[in-house]
Amino acid sequence: MFLKPTDILKDEHVEIKRMLTILNIIIEKINYGEKISPEVLEKIINFFRIFTDRCHHWKEEKILFPSLEEVGIPRYGGPIGVMLMEHEEGRRYVKNMVEAVEKYRRGLEDALGEFKENAVNYVALLDQHIYKEDNILFNLADQHIPLSRQEEIMHSFKEFEERESKGEHEKQLQILKRLEVEYLRE
Ligand SMILES: [Fe+2]
Ligand SMILES: [Fe+2]
Q1: Rounded CA gap, 82 and 67, in Å?
Q2: Distance from CA of residue 123 to its chain's centroid?
Q3: What distance in angstroms lies between residue 7's CA and the mean position of ligand 2's atoms?
Q4: Total tally of structural domains belonging to the chain
């Protein structure tokens, strides 16, 4: 069966949700007053910066969404505009988490709480964002983007991975697996 661009993006959503599960466990630990090493927090943040934002959101923003515009779905005032705004909102939470971890490293007391607040917002944002893409926007893409164009998009995805990701994508998935071994077995 023909593999569609939205299949690739949905698979990436599964990986992103796995890291959100880890982040939820971290949030719970912070709630219980447990100390978390800044290195672990940095690994999680890096995954969201590299895998979620650079690899995944790039494919959506630069390749899939413009193809949806080509078939008449407007960028502004509709679902694409909402998705773009949510990507920006996510970037702000990630930036705040980075800053909070820097403060945490310097020993500032409230920094872990600041990290947690942004992490909670980020999880909630991405959960519903992924749901809307999986169930609404990607259906529009499957139905309206002609098959020949979908094949071209698949090619662009592959080209992008080879050009930009340089193994970084795989490296991030390995980090995810190691964090799962560490945090899901407890
Ligand atoms: Fe998205
Ligand atoms: Fe997505």
Answers
A1: 16
A2: 10
A3: 11
A4: 1
